Every structure is written in structure tokens, then in C-alpha cells.
Recover the amino acids of this structure.
């Protein structure tokens, strides 16, 4: 049996005052995992809590695009090879639930109106998202990584997109290898400037380095930031391996929290 664990972040830029918000999601995930629930269920429900919290740029708190729209991205991946992601969904306060519904489908990604129509056919909530004004220099998107007693990993991420971006823009959150990546025994999620994260395929490269190295998880995350990201560009990462609690590293403020269960 594997010791269950959770790690979550609240985006690159916000200060430690957001940790109390993260702890609510961490507690929910830990309850699910302690009761024998799956990493997938724990990651989804923790992510939903963060999407419902208006202080985060995800779900309810998604920032307005330059045309005044609120368009949301989300993704979830498991270490056993399943993947689901949605891009630029409107009227979808919890896009992570739609992304998760794709885990066992023949397709693994949907975008825009097509994503919303697919969700409508399956009864997912269709309601206007409140949204909030863009904020300079703060990219408070959310991410959750979980590990259950069976050794399954799940990585869930959600965002309203970087502030001051046009309606068609796609960041790192729904892109495999960029905003997230997981495989057997390891998972990584990134946050911050989506273009830089995507240009460097950051999550995959950091994970691959860890697999091939004897360095600690924290050392590898720090290496990734120094190797690929200019220090003037705000980026952070969280990660979870097959042993111990989660880790968070950033070149700016980044609220993050972790929980480690017992045998």
C-alpha cells in the first residue's frame, strides 16, 4: 500500500495569505484519500473547491478577457495514461468536471462551443460565470496533484487564463507536458506565464529530468526554473513523487500546501 498525499498551488504571484484557501481544498482531498477514495476523485473535488473560490483565477474567479468574456480551461491526467482537457469554455463554473468526464472517452480534448455542447448533452451545469477584473502581475490559477493508496497519481489544473489576454488565447494549463505531466510514480504541475511554460514544455522536461536523476524533487524543480525560465518571468511548480509529501518551488510568491497521510 502506498501512503496517500496531496499537494496544491494557488498560482504564481499571490502571497502566503492564500494558503488558508488552499488548505480547504487539501482537507477535502485528504478526507477522500483517507477513506480509500481514488486519486482522481480527490483531485477533482479539491480542484472544484478552488474553482468555486472567487479569489482564484479559475472557475468562478476567472478573469475577464479583453472582450469582457470569461473563458475557462482545465485539465486532468492520471499516471496510468488517461487524459482529459477543455479549452475556452464559457458558462462553465467547474470546467474540471467536464475535463474529468473525458478521461474514459475516445477523445481527450474539447474546446469552445463544441466543448460546451458536449457538456450540455451530459448534463453539466450551464450558467454564467461571475468572473472578475484582470490583475497585473498575478496569475493565480490552481493545480492539485494527488496520490492514493493504490499508487495512482492524478494531476488537475484549472484557469481563467492570464490577465489582459484575448479571447482566443490558450495558455499552458490545458496543454499536456506544458502545464502538467504525470506518469508512474511522479507528477508535476506548473503555473505562471503560460507562454514561457509552453515554450519550454516545462512540466514534462522537469519530470523527465527527475526520472533520470538522483537529485531530490525540490532540487529538480529548482533546476527547471533556473534552466528554462528567465528570473524576471513569474513561474512556479508543484510536484509529487512516489514517496513523501509534495513540493513547491517558485521564482516569485506562490501559495502552496501539502498533506501526507499515514500507513
Amino acid at each position: 500500500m502506498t501512503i496517500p498525499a496531496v499537494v496544491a498551488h494557488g498560482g504564481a504571484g499571490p502571497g502566503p495569505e492564500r494558503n488558508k484557501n488552499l488548505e480547504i481544498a487539501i482537507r477535502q482531498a485528504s478526507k477522500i484519500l483517507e477513506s480509500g477514495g481514488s486519486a482522481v476523485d480527490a483531485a477533482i473535488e479539491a480542484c472544484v473547491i478552488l474553482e468555486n473560490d472567487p479569489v482564484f483565477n479559475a472557475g468562478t474567479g476567472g478573469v475577464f478577457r479583453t472582450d469582457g468574456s470569461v473563458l475557462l480551461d482545465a485539465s486532468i491526467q492520471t499516471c496510468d495514461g488517461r487524459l482529459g482537457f477543455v479549452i475556452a469554455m464559457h458558462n462553465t463554473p467547474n470546467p474540471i468536471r467536464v475535463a474529468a468526464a473525458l478521461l474514459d472517452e475516445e477523445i481527450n480534448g474539447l474546446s469552445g462551443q463544441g466543448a460546451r455542447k458536449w457538456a450540455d448533452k451530459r448534463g453539466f451545469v450551464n450558467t454564467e460565470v461571475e468572473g472578475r477584473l484582470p490583475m497585473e502581475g498575478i496569475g493565480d490559477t490552481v493545480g492539485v496533484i494527488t496520490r492514493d493508496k493504490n499508487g495512482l497519481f492524478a494531476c488537475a489544473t484549472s484557469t481563467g487564463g492570464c490577465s489582459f489576454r484575448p479571447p482566443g488565447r490558450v495558455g499552458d494549463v490545458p496543454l499536456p507536458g506544458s502545464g502538467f505531466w504525470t506518469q508512474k510514480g511522479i507528477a508535476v504541475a506548473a503555473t505562471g506565464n503560460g507562454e514561457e511554460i509552453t515554450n519550454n514544455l516545462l512540466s514534462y522536461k522537469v519530470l523527465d529530468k527527475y526520472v533520470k536523476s538522483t537529485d531530490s524533487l525540490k532540487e529538480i524543480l529548482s533546476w527547471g526554473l533556473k534552466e528554462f525560465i528567465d528570473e524576471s518571468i513569474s513561474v512556479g511548480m508543484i510536484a509529487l513523487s512516489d514517496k513523501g509529501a509534495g513540493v513547491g518551488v517558485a521564482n516569485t510568491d506562490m501559495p502552496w500546501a501539502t498533506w501526507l497521510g499515514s500507513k
Summary: The chain has a mean pLDDT of 95. The chain has one domain: 5-260.
